[in-house]
Amino acid sequence: MNTLIARRPLLRQKLATVTAALTFANAMHIQSIPMWVGSSNNYAYLVKDDKTNDAVIIDPANPSEVTPVLQKAIKSGEINLTAIVNTHHHWDHAGGNKKLQGELGLDKLPIIGGKDCEGVTRTPGHGESFKIGEGIAVKALHTPCHTQDSICWFMQDGDQKVVFTGDTLFISGCGKFFEGNAEEMHSALNKTLAALPDDTVVFPGHEYTKSNVKFAASVLQNEAIQKLQAFAENNKETQGKFTIGDEKVCYS
Fold it and tell me: Gene3D superfamilies in the record, alphabetically (predicted)?
């Protein structure tokens, strides 16, 4: 991947102690929903403001795996689903939008994402913000390269900060340049995402860490990469366990 410039290294000393689930002390709750496990290893993410139960679902590409989770949460009153949010238009991220709307009986559910996403109803500009419920501030970060409509979503609730990166940034890797070039990916990684606070937790669109770090270790050898490789070998899921600061330390 293109090197993220090191600023204030925040690599956690004991990566194995990072908890798998993220239920924040403020009002932001994130649930990972694995899809196509064993093949493309995608993630959809349900993000809820616990104060209001307002929620969005990010990249629900495979309704057969996502719809039951949402139906249960809606029926129990745990969530009020307010939007589908997409990171980019590829079918394995945005291809389930309309089917999900139909299965939930929410044909008018807003779809927020890039201009080429299936059924999109709103495309925020770069840096434009909106809220989930009362507490979660969401900012659109345009990161064209993997696709020209790629958007990373930075969310903050109090001191908790996360970013949903789709196929732009993975843990220890980046997406293919399907619609862009190296200059665009360099800007996405080293300018747009590197400008986020170092303690911003990364939620990528796929579970690719094990293969990514295997390649990284073949060309770079430092303590941070060795720790990351050990963690990936012993944990099937790595989403939500590493930060922008960790990426900078690994590739500084």
Answer: Ribonuclease Z/Hydroxyacylglutathione hydrolase-like
Q: Is 186 considered catalytic here?
A: no
Select from 24, 27, 29, 68 the least CA-distant residue to 45. 29
The yes-or-no answer on residue 92 being catalytic is: yes
Query: How many residues appear in the chain?
Result: 252
The amino acid at residue 197 is P
What CATH code is carried by the domain that includes residue 149?
3.60.15.10
Task: Write out pLDDT tens, residues 17-64.
Answer: 333 334 444 689 999 999 999 999 999 999 999 999 999 999 999 999
Burial class (CB in 10 A: 0-12, 13-18, 19+), 219: exposed
Catalytic residue status for 126: no
Please give the structure tokens belonging to residue 103. Answer: 């299965």
For residue 150, the enclosing domain spans: 15-250
How many structural domains is the chain composed of?
1
Element (H, E) at 162: strand 160-166
Q: Domain for residue 8, yes or no?
A: no
CB within 8 Å of 177: residues ≥ 6 apart: 145, 146, 184, 185
Q: What is the DSSP letter of 7?
A: S
* Catalytic residue, candidates 146, 157, 198, 246: 146
206 tagged catalytic: yes
89 among known catalytic residues: no
Crossing angle of helices 209-219 and 223-234, rounded to 10°: 150
With H, G, I as helix, E, B as strand and everything else as coil, classify residue 92. helix
